[in-house]
Amino acid sequence: MFGVKKTQLTPYIYLLPVISILLFVFTLGLVMSIFQSIGVHGDSGFENLTVEYYREVFRSGGFRSGLFFSLRVSLISTGIAVIIGVGLAYLLVMQQREWKILQILLKLPIIVPHLVAAFIIFTLFSQSGILARIGVLLGLMEHPREFPGLIFDRQGVGVILAYVWKGTPFIFLIVYQVLRSIHGEMVEAARNLGAKGKDLFFEIFLPLSIPSVFSTFIILFAFSFGSYEIPFLLGPTSPRALPVLAYVEYIHPDWMNRPYAMAMNMVLAGISVFLVWLYHWVFKKFRRHNWEGRSR
Amino acid sequence: MSEILFDRISKHYDKEETIKNLTLKIEDGEIISLLGPSGCGKTTTLKILAGLVNPDFGTVYMDGINVNPLPAEKRGAVIVFQDHRLFPHMTVGGNIEFGLRMQKVPKRTRREKVEEMLKFMELEEHGGKFPDQISGGQKQRAAIARSLIINPKVLLLDEPFSNLDQRLKEEMRSFIVEIQKKLKITTILVTHDKEDALMTSKKIGVMFQGELKQYGTPEELYEEPSSIEVAKFFGEVNEFSIDHEDEHRIHTYLGAFNKTRLSMKRGVYYSKLLVRPEAVEIYYEEHSENMISGLVMERIYAGEKTYYSILCGERILKASVVGNCHWNEGQRVFLKIEGKNTMLVK
Amino acid sequence: MKKQTSRAVLVVVALAFILPLMIILLWSVTVSWPFPDLFPREFGLRGLAQIFEEGSRALESLYTSVKISLWVTILTLMITIPGGKALGIYDFPGKAFIKIFALAPLIISPVAIGMGIHSTFIRLGLTNTELGVVLIHIVPGIPYGIRIFTNIFELVGNQLEEQGKVLGANSFQVFFHITLPTILPGLISAGSMIFIISFSQYFLTFLIGGGSVITFPLMMVPYIQSGDRTMAASYSAVFIVVTLCGLLAIEKVLKLYYSKSSGIAGAFYTRKKVKS
User: Fold this and answer.
1) Predicted confidence (pLDDT) per residue in A109-134, tens digit
2) Nearest CA to A25 among C81, C141, C95, C94?
3) I want to staple A128 with a disulfide (CB 3.0 to 4.6 A). Which of A144, C216, C259, C272 is the partner?
4) Judging by beta carbons within 10 Å of its beta carbon (0-12, 13-18, 19+), is residue A267 exposed, middle or buried?
5) What does each C-alpha distance from A189 to A204, A288, B143, B241, C64 come to in angstroms?
6) Which residues have CB under 8 Å from B180's CB, separation 6+?
């Protein structure tokens, strides 16, 4: 009609519904958050543009300790989940059998919601939980209060445990698929060219699976960094995880506090986006390095 | 460079291909093909030689030494896989270098050898590229280079031409023959395409369902196949049941044939006589005895040859003649088949 | 020896992840399980009975939850199948950007998005409504749908669809008889994932639903907070069982659809195969 071929329009038409929803809910939500965090309001428009909210947020001790808490908890829990998940996947790949039943059982934690995960950690690790009872049985302790307070504690142990329980199977399943595909063909080819044991792991498995390990790491990290439920149920009142802190500011009776909540949200989102960028940057470097180092 | 002996090898899988009692000897420096339909056990044979698969029964000897206990990395039998399996995270140069690094060859020597190999394989410009940045033919050459650089005792090629188009295929065939001549490396090529085998190899083994049916030169396979299956694998045949034989002749319902072939062995009972279409001669008149009269049913002109279907009695006989011929459909003709151009199978 | 060690490690670690679930199931049928005891003292169905009581709020919320999640699953599949097809088959300007854009909800916190869109939803009257909740639940499912369908369309391409068209099928026939059946495995895994994400959503539901749309997770939280383990465990147990049923239903329905779409001959073939 306008000199545009029908086939060139087709993909855009296909994408229209999903993009519309993303624009209307996701992008609009993001833009509104940004606007509110820099002082743009419905009535006054762009008149009072300011970074004051960010400055003030960073000045507050509650925010700084909350940010630190969130970062630490997410990094540690994701790190542990990756180590256990990758380890399990590697062990399973090395077995002769596929162990379908093990794979199915390990899928269960993925379908269990985070709320239930929080409750599970609570029943296991609270001061009157299953572990404490085992402690009594073994004669290590008598009273619930002798058991270390792992839930609601300032270190966020309970939160970390819950994320590890939810995250590990996720990592395991994805990495297992990747490792298995490597295992068949690439490992055969490498053994055929004289590689064995340690070489196989460091030359083939590790470099080939690292991209997917990293990307699942980032997805998991971003999720635990930005989600509300688990720190809300298992976290300490101080420091508060960033999403919880943002929500507390958000529902503050004085709605003038909302821009602070939005500023926190933006810091939250900004850090996750930065991580994704870092991931891409690292992999570009990695590839470049390989090129120069290995060929000429 | 090495002499290979498969001694009564058997391998059985649950569902996949099996190998039944395979015995095969390959001379030092020879290039041979294993030919057969997919799933006939060819690839498994290669993997057994390479040490990637252990046989259930039987022994593999290289230069007279039993290599069954040796792990893959110590065999010196390198497979170039059908899907080339270049490591995607290494450059072409890195891939070629891989085997040397595994052997802990010093870096300088490695670099020299890789450069040399890149040149030898006409890949100089592509050493720094990743496998997904080069063409199919280049990938194939890179995979061969990666195998050759570690001086394997045997080079195993698994369907090396199957992913290439016709022109590249022909190029690669002569390329492989050329390297093999230069390096005198014992080479086993696995393929499902008879042309690949005929055009590259001095000897061919035909495999069906895990069994080596016949092993011999292209001439032997074509002219003296051991079974109808083998004969059919190399081209169309007309088959006739043998009624009876006397001292000098074999009788079929289409007539008698003189026993002139050397392929007839004493004490073997032959049940079928096979005739290739090009062995059927077509004439206007019955000018000698033992000619068969027939009616041309179909004529297909295909450039270098013309193909005929001729009705003789109740049977259709296939014949082919070089060049363009003028017998037309519906025409009565007389066919002559020389006894020496026939094949006998059990 | 070494093999046995690694097998033992596998089993132990896997058990460490599965056993806690069993403990929860045990709690759900427990009436009394005082402190130092390692096993329940008294079993009973107090928790489950309370949930399944006639006309209980719990059952009502369960119904709401399932309804919302099924809608979210259907709608998200409807928008991500064509989206994934566009990204998997076509090349067009802006493709790389859209790919990243569609995966962004994985990275950017739903807390930020939810609070940002809240005021707009209030203005549009979408808060406190199931429609609003469905809309916000669609967002976190999009990356999974897009990712799975993009991969699958990259694999299957559109040759089969073209063949279908050549054989005289119109666009709708092609979609229902060829496209859907070929992407069935992706449909099942994407559908399951989207269902799970929506079904277990807490924060977005209570922010946008504003206390008027009560889903199952919302009913559950007070019990977890108050430490009523029997009730919390009962909710958890029901939750897990319903999720499993939901996933099974999604798979069954899609497979049934598949056998129907393969026509009379196909149905005959499947039936025969089942019998033998």
Assistant:
1) 988 999 999 999 999 998 888 888 88
2) C141
3) A144
4) buried
5) 10, 24, 10, 49, 54
6) B31, B155, B187
- Closest residue in B to A290 (Cα–Cα): B90
Residues in chain B within 8 Å Cβ distance of A199: 102
* A185-197 b/e (C-beta count within 10 Å ≥ 16 → b): ebbbbbbbbbbee
- The highest-level CATH class for domain C56-275 is mainly alpha
The answer to whether the CB of B208 falls within 8 A of the CB of B17 is no
A contact residues 70-129, partner C, Cβ 8 Å cutoff: 84, 87-88, 91-92, 94-95, 99, 102, 105-106, 108-116, 118-124, 126, 128
Chain C contact for A270, CB < 8 A? no
Phi, psi of A263 (to 5 degrees): -60, -40
What does the block give as tokens for C106? Answer: 């994985």
CB–CB contact A21 C142 (8 Å): yes
**One CATH from 1.10.3720.10, 1.10.579.10, 3.30.70.20, 1.20.120.1560 for A62-284:** 1.10.3720.10
Angle, CA of B151, B157 and B160, to the nearest 5°: 130
Summarised one tens digit per residue, pLDDT across range C152-179 is 999 888 888 888 787 877 878 888 878 8
Q: Hey, where are the domains in chain C?
A: 1-44, 56-275
Mutate which: A205, A213, A289, A295, vs B, most B CBs within 10 A? A295
Predicted pLDDT of residue A7: 58
Does the structure show a pLDDT above 50 at A4? no
Beta bridge partners of B292: B335
Locate the domains of chain A by residue range: 62-284
Indicate the pTM of the whole model: 0.80
Q: Residue C12 and residue C15: Cα distance in Å, rounded? A: 5
Q: For residue C276, is pLDDT > 60?
A: no
* Phi, psi at B80, each rounded to 5°: -100, 110
Confidence at residue A292, expressed as pLDDT on a 0 to 100 scale: 39
Q: Which residues are paired to B305 by β-bridges? A: B302, B322
Q: How far is CA C120 from CA B122, C110, C116, C203, C231, in A?
A: 64, 16, 8, 18, 36
Are β-strands B315-322 and C30-32 bridged in parallel, bridged antiparallel, or unpaired? unpaired
The verdict on whether omega for the bond into residue A239 sits within 30 degrees of 0, i.e. cis, is yes
Q: Are B96 and B141 in contact (CB under 8 A)?
A: no
